[in-house]
Amino acid sequence: MELKDLREQRVRLLGDCLVCAPFLAYVGAFSWEYRDRLIYQTWQQGIIRRGIPLSQPFRVEQLLTSEVEISKWTAEGLPPDELSTQNGILTTQSSRFALCIDPQQQVC
Questions:
Q1: Please, which residues have CB within 8 angstroms of residue 38's CB and are 6 or more apart in sequence?
Q2: Residue 52's pLDDT is what?
Q3: Is 23 within 8 Å of 88 (Cβ atoms)?
Q4: Of 20, 35, 37, 57, which shows the fewest CB atoms inside 10 Å?
Q5: Distance separating alpha carbons of residues 42 and 53, to the nearest angstrom
Q6: Chain-centre distance for alpha carbon 45
Q7: Strand, coil or helix: what is 84?
Q8: For residue 108, is pLDDT > 60?
Q9: Is the separation of the CB atoms in 100 and 28 below 8 Å?
C-alpha cells in the first residue's frame, strides 16, 4: 500500500510544486485574504482546470514544512494560525529575504 501511495504522490508533486514555487517567490508581502485568493482560488483552480494532478485537499504547509517544525515554532511563540505558519515557511524556506505581514505585531 505504501508503494502505491508514493507513486500517487509522485504524480501529484508537479501540481503541488506549481503552487508552492510562486508561493515562496511572491506572497510574503500580501495580506491573508489576498494570499488565500491567490493560492487556493487563482493558482490551484488554474492547475485543476488544466488537468494537472494536485493533492486534494491541497495545503502549502503539507509540502513545505512538517508538523514537527510547526510544533517547534508554536513552542517558540509563533501563533498556530495559518498565516503565521505561512510566514514561518517563507522565513525558513525562501531564497530571498522574507517580507511578511505580522498582524499580531509580535515581531520587535
A1: 22, 26, 27, 30
A2: 94
A3: no
A4: 57
A5: 16
A6: 15
A7: helix
A8: no
A9: yes
Query: What per-residue confidence (pLDDT) applies to 102?
Result: 63
**30 exposure class (CB count in 10 Å sphere: 0-12, 13-18, 19+):** middle
Q: Which residue, chain included where needed, has cell 510566514?
A: 87
Helices and strands (DSSP H and E) totals, the chain? 6, 0
Q: What is the CA angle 64-61-82, rounded to 5?
A: 140
Q: Flag whether the pTM goes above 0.90.
A: no
- Which pLDDT score, from 0 to 100, does residue 48 have? 92
Instruction: Say if CB 106 and CB 77 are below 8 A apart.
Output: yes
Residue at grid coordinates 501540481: 15
Alpha helices in 1-108 (DSSP H): 2-26, 32-36, 44-49, 60-64, 67-75, 82-93
Amino acid 91: pLDDT: 86
